[in-house]
Amino acid sequence: MPSPYRALFAAPGSKAFSAAGFLGRMPLSMMGIGVVTMISQLTGRYGLAGALSATIALAAAVAGPQVSRLVDQYGQRRVLRPATLVSLTAAAGLLFTAHFDGPDWLLFVCCAGIGCVPSVGAMIRARWAALYRGTPSLHTAYSFESVVDEICFIFGPIISIGLSTAWFPEAGPLLAACFLAVGVFWLTAQRATEPAPHPRERKDGGGSALRSPGLQVLVATFAATGAIFGAVDVVTVAFAEEEGHKAAASVVLAVYALGSCAAGAVFGLLRFAGAAERRWLLGVCAMAVSMIPLLLVGNLPFLAVALFVAGLSIAPTMITTMSLIEEHVPRAQLTEGMTWVSTGLAVGVALGSSVAGWVIDAAGARAGYGVPAVSGAVAVAVGFLGYRRLKRPARDRGGSVGQHSEREERHVA
């Protein structure tokens, strides 16, 4: 690992909370695709599978920011443990219902309960921010976390799809639930690095972080971006099945994440002098353009190459997004702000996976790749329309004076 990354772990406790965060985030890449694989194997209904995966994402979109707002006020330990228990109970209900051929409505109820899962990635980034706020190391830390995210997406689908196809259909979601339990309870046992809560200390009287115009743009754009991810996951599984190699979908999706992982690792070593919002918009455009070759896929090797190239723009865009959140959200609402972006992604994943499932059922997997292409175009449109809002950072975000002055001088220039 390059020295800037090694230097991150000089802080006491950083290795432990990072390891716990890795385990706690594995379900992010395993649960949705695991449910798609499980339901498609048990019932053969991709429409239902996509709708259930969408329900998990939508429920997380509703509950996630509320959980994170409570975390900002009361601390990670007091909030994450009960929220995780609710999610684990619902996951157990989903597995039993699917295994014993229960009614569809009960499957949806259980998936809604799984949505109470906390945004572990936001919790880890908040710990890094508490350690390195106002220093160049924070950019490296955010880059490292994006790499960890992509490692999860490299191995998560492989493990989840592989277990569900080679062992028994419920195996993938079951292991995802186990990772969640171990990761969250290990993380919350580490009190020394837990960010200090901010109970009712906000100048705005405790209003939502989403009132920030800049954060609204980020969330809206990443709702469209999330539709790309959700659609690609579902369509790739169906495409691999049409090609007669359903298990290979996990490898293809891993290649997609590998491209993002490699780009994120390099991006973390770079230092940029220009405006972050310009890099962000460029990244959104790159993600949209990279969806066009998917419309031409004819076999799995070509699909893997196209997805690797598409993945190169993901991590740099996400890293820049986290930096922009720091500029547009008050410090006391940082966890909530990060979770709202995850919520935008979750809403998009829900819509993308659901629409893709319907398109697959109606017209086949190849037609399904039109969904991420359209979603990319929407993301670009929203990004351009809201770009001016991103050039006005929040004055009460709690950042350092030097950070404010740097941006003001840059815009004056």
TrEMBL record:
Whether Membrane counts among this entry's keywords is yes
InterPro entries registered for this protein in UniProt: MFS, MFS_dom, MFS_trans_sf
Name of the molecule in the record = MFS family permease
What is the topology of this protein in the membrane according to its UniProt annotation?
A: Multi-pass membrane protein
Principal location: membrane
Q: Report residue spans for region: Disordered.
A: 394-413
Q: Which Pfam families match?
A: MFS_1
What PANTHER family does the entry give?
MAJOR FACILITATOR SUPERFAMILY (MFS) PROFILE DOMAIN-CONTAINING PROTEIN, PTHR23542
| Domain Major facilitator superfamily (MFS) profile positions | 214-413
- Locations listed in the record: Cell membrane
Give TM segment ranges.
Answer: 20-40, 46-67, 79-99, 105-126, 147-168, 174-193, 214-239, 251-273, 280-296, 302-325, 337-360, 366-387
Organism of provenance? Streptomyces griseomycini
Which range is the signal sequence, renumbered to this chain? none
GO CC aspect terms:
plasma membrane
UniProt keyword terms in alphabetical order: Membrane, Transmembrane, Transmembrane helix
What GO molecular function annotation could you give as one example from this UniProt entry? transmembrane transporter activity
User: Is Ribonucleoprotein one of the keywords?
Assistant: no
